[in-house]
Amino acid sequence: MKAAVQNGADSVYFGASNFNARASASNFDLTNLKDAISYAKLRGVNTHLTLNTLIKDSEFEEAVLLAQKAYEFGIDAIIVQDLGLASYLIENFPDLPIHASTQMTIHNLEGVKKIESLGFKRAVLSRELSLEEIEYICSNSNIEIECFIHGALCICYSGQCLFSSMVGGRSGNRGKCAQPCRLPYELICENSSKELCFSLNGNVTKETEVTKLNVPNEKGYLLSPRDLCGLDYLPKLIAAGVMCFKIEGRMKSPEYVATVTRIYRKYIDLALSDQTYVVDKNDVEELAQVFNRGNFSSGHLSSQANKDLIYPKKPNNIGIYIGNVSNLKPNKGHILVSLNHSVSLGDSITFENENTTYTISELMLKGKNIDNAKKGQFVEIGRMKGNIHSGDKIYRIASKDLSTLAKLSYKTENKKTHLTCKIKLEKEKPIIFEVKTINNQSLLFKDIKVSLNSDTIVPLEALSRPITKERIIEQINKTNDTIFIFDKIDVDLDNNLFLPSIKVLNELRRNALEQINIIAQNRILRRSPNLPEIIISKKADKKTNKSISVLLNILHEDYNYVDLQNINQVYIPLKYFSNKKYEKIIESISNRFDTYIYLPPIIKSNYKNLLINVIDNSIDRFSVKGFVISNLSSFGFIDIVNKKYKDKFKYIGNYTLNIYNQYTTQKLHKLGLERLTISPELDNMAIQSITNNNIDKEIIVYGRVPLMNINYCLLGKTNRCYPTCGSLCQDEKVYYLKDRLGLNFRIIPDNIQTVSTIYNSKITSISADNFNVSSYRIDVLDENIKQINLIAETVISGKRFEGKEYTNGNLNREI
């Protein structure tokens, strides 16, 4: 935090000990949270608490108490993911800005307008947006907009990733992501003729699994994006109206934070000036030196396809390439290299086939020891032993000089509050010492005036060398280790005086600055409002009649869906309503079952008009019962539909709204959702709690859980469709990511929005008889009609499927 503040950050965001998206970071506890807030605010830097995880009912009161403490300590804003918690804070802390975390998946104008109407003061946009999309949002909304500008990128839309949770029990929505995106995978494909094995309580049905895997297309870290560097986009983003640029840095070193903050401060100031905006390649090199994954990319900021988004060779820092091993002396542990970059003693290096990091402690040029070597010199580096071979590439992982510069920056006080001083010295009278703050600074220091007198030491008549005004000013100006600096010191000094001890000036200065500091610190603190009781219902009316819903993730033209049995509701993804070849299938389904249009979690701006047209045509063509709402932005479309069709339809809240607690269910119910699908992340006890109110709930009892929604096509290797990609997404093959354990994760690409979905390798199957819900939901991909009917029968019987293909998810483990 000091590194960020001292290098020019306007605001810092950090977590407390609980409920933040970096649970493994060195977060602040309540003891030093107050000090952290004070440290930043006294230096004119705003503080934002990250309370940006999903909250269970059992944790809600603790989360509110943490927010209350932060409020009392003077926090400037709180970043929140959980809709229920955000709504509570907005209602009960009206003068505290609540920011919508990027974890809320706010990715279009409709989403921004919705959170604006809910009382949020700022939206931290999804990282998948282009400059043009950000500009459009800024131009058409009144809320503050914040976006990421530098650092690590998630491959998945934040708030939509269940990979770490469902596979490993460590939820990214709970701040404990195990980063499966940084692991190696293999892209494989198979023919579409695959039938699933079903095992009910150990009894295998007649269906057999027929898998035909072809030669792998690609191996590597296929989900690991390069880090974002947005320097080139700063002027246009500022012109677009972005209020704040976020640098990812909470899991990085202070040297990293210092360097990146310093450089972005430089270029933001340059963009705001009248000078020509040109990025110095040396600054980009410094950014790469402190951390890069295969160099940088522009992320999703460009409107053109980014074919360099992923770096498949290595998932962590690769450093700066400095040359290849020309020769080596293995017995001595010496390597020879023609330098492509300068190096120094104390630098850290590594080799392409070696995970070990080495510190350069011996550097020689023509047999003589040197401290530094320049680009182009042929040098010998000693004490290097390991998996090193001639021709290996060498990378500098850390620069001693750059690290030293960074450390110096945050060990020095660079943020100063400006003061004026008047001091009066008269013979044998107490010294009068008056300090005022200059008012064109932070409001914390506005109109502060401190007047002090010396108590025991007074000026006397000088016998030989009287004190001078210059000596007095020099002594008072000794404020280097404080946040203060004197702009003007007026000295009223009688003739021929001396001070028995110069320390009296030090004491007067120290006491005056301390009093100013105390006044400012007291202004930071706030008194908390009286909060209403947090009410978590303990009992609800028992739901006796349970319906069964089925989500048809894939519509198969050769399936006769009217033969489905025991099914009450059918959810069909929106994309199928826009394709004429599925009209007859949808018509037959909607005539037989209550049919809902299943809106996707991601609706890009260029898809909006098509979406509205498709909805209108579908309402005219088919018997549509309602809609499944998957993102806050979809409420904008609800308003359009309700206005046009006069509240004709029913609305179901999808689990992708991250339905975790009763406060969230209540808020979504007030917004017009009649039934809510519980998050598949939740454990048994949390599900029991969330169903203890009378709002209708639905629980997913069967299906492959979507682990990721990614703005990237693994087949075309880009974040946007482009004409020459080959259109592999439209062939008859089925694609998977195969992990190190041999598990296959199904990929369903999308050529409408370039949003690919990755599904779990195992099928979630749970018995939900004990849960007080009104509906059971079955999610299917390739299951045929016979298999779907078997699943429905199994659900009705209160049983679940067993075997290695199945999992009960997080039901029996706490995340």
Describe this structure in words.
The protein contains 20 helices and 43 strands. With about 800 residues, the chain is an alpha/beta fold. It has 4 domains: about 1-150 and about 225-290, Aldolase class I (TIM Barrel), CATH 3.20.20; about 320-410, Translation factors (Elongation Factor Tu (Ef-tu), domain 3); about 415-525, no CATH class; about 545-705 and about 765-805, Alpha-Beta Barrel (TIM Barrel). The strands form 8 sheets. Strands 1, 2, 3, 4, 5, 6, 11, 12 and 13 form a 9-stranded mixed sheet that branches. An 8-stranded antiparallel sheet has the order 18-17-23-14-15-22-19-20. Helix 5 crosses helix 17 (about 635-645) and helix 9 (about 255-270) packs antiparallel against helix 10 (about 280-290). The longest helix is centred in the middle third of the chain and has 22 residues, at about 505-525. It is globular, with a radius of gyration of 32 Å. The two termini are about 30 Å apart.
Low-pLDDT residue intervals, each spanning 5 or more residues: 192-197, 200-216
Tally of strands:
43
CATH topology of the largest domain: TIM Barrel
Count of individual helical segments: 20
Q: Could you say which structural class the secondary elements and strand pairing correspond to?
A: alpha/beta
Give the end-to-end Cα distance, rounded to a whole number of Å: 28 Å
Large-scale geometry: globular
Mean pLDDT score: 93
Number of domains: 4
CATH superfamily of the largest domain: Aldolase class I
Please give the largest β-sheet.
9 strands, mixed
Helix content: 25-40%
Computed over alpha carbons, the radius of gyration is 32 Å
CATH architecture label name of the largest domain = Alpha-Beta Barrel
The proportion of strand residues reads 15-25%
Q: Any idea of the CATH class of the largest domain?
A: Alpha Beta
